[in-house]
Design goal:
Layout (H helix, E strand, L loop, with lengths): L1 E8 L4 E3 H7 L4 H8 L3 E3 L6 H16 L6 E7 L10 H9 L4 E5 L5 H14 L5 E9 L17 E9 L6 E8 L7 E2 L6 E2 L2 E2 L8 E2 L1 H22 L7 E6 L4 H11 L10 H4 L6 H11 L8 E8 L3 E8 L1
Parallel strand pairs: 4-5, 4-6, 13-14
Antiparallel strand pairs: 1-7, 2-3, 6-7, 8-15, 9-12, 10-11, 14-15
Helix pairs in contact: 3-4, 6-7
Bound molecules: acetyl coenzyme *A.
Acetyl coenzyme *A binds next to α2 and α6.
Length: 318
């Protein structure tokens, strides 16, 4: 199984750190030095399925295949347009094609989980081309009065086309979860409502214990990278790029230091987009692809981590 094309789409409206200074007690210096984020994209008239559709169109174009060639659509998202139908179903409708289609929610760990699920399905079926998308409108879950979280998140989508091929591609994917740390990062909640019982409507917006998630991330990203290297008998020096979930540049710098790897090998674009959850890795991949950074045969590692708490890593021969 290998990735043959990438695509991405981000909304045009830019929300800068200066703008956030008008909303909450914060400043550009604090946000930049603590997170590395300078601005993020915010959708004003498009929902998760629209971002996903645009990213998918660009990936299909780059793969030079038609929507009808797609055998499976998986959309990784924790911010779907609706409970029903799935975002993947909405894409399928827009493309007017017939194939298996469903959403996957592992929050910021979603894209790596998506790779695990899609490659497993491809291995056990006759699927030739699969569309895997990470798409999020996190800004609809943000509490714009909470300076601990509102500075972090943005909207966007990234997509890849996977091909069932004999060529070396996705070598090994590892995923894990720790549900007993759910309290550290949560959002949403649908109140019970039936003829026998009715709950009050709860606050559905993101709440996060930032420093707990920070420590968790540093730990699991290090372990995930070590694990995929071990399982594939790969030396860390063979890896050209680590493409991690874009949450905080301090997390990535710390991991580079712990692994004794040059920081330059940790691709970062969070200054432009902030944390776009399951979309951050495919957006980064597409950006790298368009810059010509990804060369045939190059080994790269993708690492996701987030609410759940979930995490995972995959080693790819590009
Ligand atoms: N502006 C100014 N001050 C602030 C702000 C702000 N925006 N936010 C918090 N502070 C203050 C706090 O109130 C605190 O003040 P105090 O010392 O007087 O109490 C101080 O800054 C330090 O706060 P911390 O939370 O300890 O700051 P920290 O250095 O940990 O940075 C951050 C916070 C950026 C959230 C960091 O912890 C982080 O990035 N955590 C990881 C987030 C992550 O990786 N998420 C991934 C998954 S997301 C998903 O799955 C959807």
């Amino acid at each position: 199984m290998r990735i043959i094309a990438t695509g991405s789409y981000t909304p045009s409206t830019v929300l800068t750190n200066d703008f956030l200074e008008e909303l909450v007690d914060t400043n550009d210096e604090w946000i930049t030095s603590r997170t590395g984020i300078k601005e993020r994209r915010v959708t004003t008239n498009e929902n998760t399925s629209d971002l996903a559709y645009n990213a998918a169109i660009s990936a299909l174009k780059n793969a030079d295949i038609a929507p009808k060639d797609i055998d499976l659509i998986v959309v990784c998202t924790c911010t779907p347009d609706a409970f029903l139908p799935s975002v993947a179903g909405m894409l399928q409708r827009k493309f007017d094609i017939s194939c298996m289609a469903f959403d996957l929610n592992a929050a910021c760990g979603g894209f790596v989980y998506g790779i695990k699920v899609v490659t497993s399905l491809m291995a056990s079926s006759s699927f030739k081309y699969c569309l895997l998308v990470g798409s999020e409108v996190l800004t609809k879950l943000v509490n714009w009065e909470d300076r601990n979280t509102c500075i972090l998140f943005g909207d966007g989508a990234g997509a890849v086309i996977l091909e069932n091929s004999d060529k070396k591609g996705i070598e090994y994917t590892y995923c894990d979860a720790k549900g007993d740390m759910d309290y550290a990062l949560k959002a949403g909640g649908v109140p019970l409502s039936n003829p026998f019982y009715k709950e009050d409507i709860k606050d559905y917006r993101i709440e996060m214990l930032g420093s707990e998630v920070f420590k968790f991330a540093v730990n699991v990203v290090y372990k995930s990278i070590t694990k995929v290297l071990e399982k594939t008998n790969t030396n860390i020096e063979e890896i050209s790029y680590f493409v991690c979930h874009q949450a905080n540049y301090r997390i990535l710098k710390k991991i580079a230091k712990d692994l004794k790897v040059d920081e330059e090998k940790f691709y970062m674009n969070l200054e432009k987009y902030g944390n776009t959850s399951s979309a951050s890795i495919p957006i980064a991949l597409d950006e790298m692809n368009r810059k010509g950074l990804l060369k045939d045969g190059m080994k790269i590692v993708l690492v996701g981590f987030g609410a759940g708490l979930t995490w995972g890593a995959t080693l790819i021969n590009w």
